Amino acid sequence: MAAPDLQNPPNSTAVLSLSGDHESHDSQLPDSGGWITFPFIAGALTGLTLAAGGWGANLIVYLIEEFNVKRIDAAQISNVVSGSSSLFPIVGAIAADCFFGSFSVIALSSCVSLLGVVLLALTTLDFLRPEECGLASTLCKNPSKLQFSVLYSGIALSVIGQGGTRFTLATMGADQFHKPSHQAVFFDWYFFSFYVSAVISNTVIVYVEDNVSWKLGFAITIVFNLIGLVIFLLGSRFYRYVKPQGSPFVDLARVFVAALRKRKVLISLDNEDYYCNHQHQGPVKTVTATAPTKSFRFLNRAALKTEGDARFDGLIAKPWRVCTVEQVEDFKTLIRIFPLWSSSIFLATPIGIQISLTVLQALIMDRHLGPHFKIPAGSFLVTSLISTAIAIPLIDRILFPSWKKLTRHSPTPIQRIGIGHILNALSMAVSAVVESRRRRVAHTRHLPVGSVTPMLGLWLFPQLVLVGIGEAFHFPGQVSLYYQEFPTSLRSTSTAMISLLIAIAFYLSTALIDLIRRTTTWLPEDLNDGRVDNVYWLMTGIGLINFFAFLVCAKMYKYKSTNEGSTNNGVR
Q1: How far apart are CA 59 and CA 206, in angstroms?
Q2: pLDDT digit string (tens) for 111-163?
Q3: CA–CA distance from 154 to each of 81, 110, 123 (Å)?
Q4: What is the pTM for the complete model shown?
Q5: Alpha helix locations (H) across 241-344?
Q6: Sign of CA dihedral 422, 431, 80, 381
Q7: Per the CB 3.0–4.6 Å rule, which of 334, 428, 477, 544 could disulfide with 416?
């Protein structure tokens, strides 16, 4: 995972290449960007991730202990917040791709998240939170409308700001390189930096919040957010800036409309009958397809030339009646990748449920390490982050080189995702077994409501290690797949697509938990009287069914032509 020695002097005008063949256009790209920008991208990512993790990782505990919110309700709120944190990157990515560019979106979003964490810090003041309440008490005072308003405003602004930076930073970082091999190394180091930062925020900052004060913990998040913003701005003279090209979604809509309007026109076998020209403005350069592919042939009608479609100078006269071959092929790419993308929704949904339930389990387990140290409940999740941070370089430096020696092929992004599916399902099964044992211990002791089960919280570690290793496979694999396969005009959107599926997964996990609460007795307020193990077994079954659906989608998927000119099956 060592970074190549790539020197790129700063301060030159950026050129956006819309070609998938980055390797063949090195000489046409500007002398800016490259590895000199990585410290600024990684520094900004580190600061912003520390800030986001500082309040997000311990949100469930903060709601329960400081705002007197019931346990399952706090878990539901946390899932909604996590879903929103993953939804807004799509908004930020679209804004970056279509209108403002990545730099402006990241800078503005960092300011918004800074305002959000300031509001969250204000909720630690006595007049902006309810009176303290014991964990087992049923006479807790609810927060006032003002207190809830400040709390939710801070969360909302923090989520919006976080959404505009996380994956847009990844895209901007990848845009600094024009060789896919360098981009792949960048993604590995990017996620390594992300997970290391998340580990620190989930341990050090959470420990400060639980054992020193919430005021100091939230103050630290403000400082890190500000540091991340400053570091990002300091690198502005070195970045390669990719100009937004307007909304590519309009072009995609035109393909559908044009194909529909020409549905009665016969498809031609002559390549000359299809429109391949494209109007260019400024320094934008494009290599377009010269003939449509045979897949989804009904869409080829959108590029079929008919009378009156083009002007005398060859440019399109009726953009909602004829499109370029390139636009048609971009639309087909999105159709082909959609089944694979959607199969990952139920890869992430069990993880969302596991995250919430693990914190609740930790609250009623023995969290002591020795006589004087007690692990914060919110810090248990750091186990998965640590395992991911350790697994990524091991996979990159040891496993994949060995894989290539044995098979003579590097593992494809789809194969990485498939391994992640298997490990994720195994993690859910381990979670079920551990919870079954915890429940038996609690019942044999006849514990009163709210009591701690005399079972070490360390038993939660194996399931979190497995899910973390799984993320080391499927998370970079998905980002690499979407960045590689999506149309070039949707680069920011491509890396944010994983964020969209995580958002949907967290919302689904919230809905599933609510459905389980309504239809079963598995999730009462006192988990000792529930059947959390059944919830995990249900997630195991969903994961296995989804894995087989993924295999079907992977078998049918064909990669776009690589630089070597090959087109590979997804599971090859």
Answers
A1: 10
A2: 999 999 999 999 999 888 887 765 445 567 788 889 889 999 999 999 999 88
A3: 12, 14, 9
A4: 0.70
A5: 248-261, 325-343
A6: negative
A7: 477
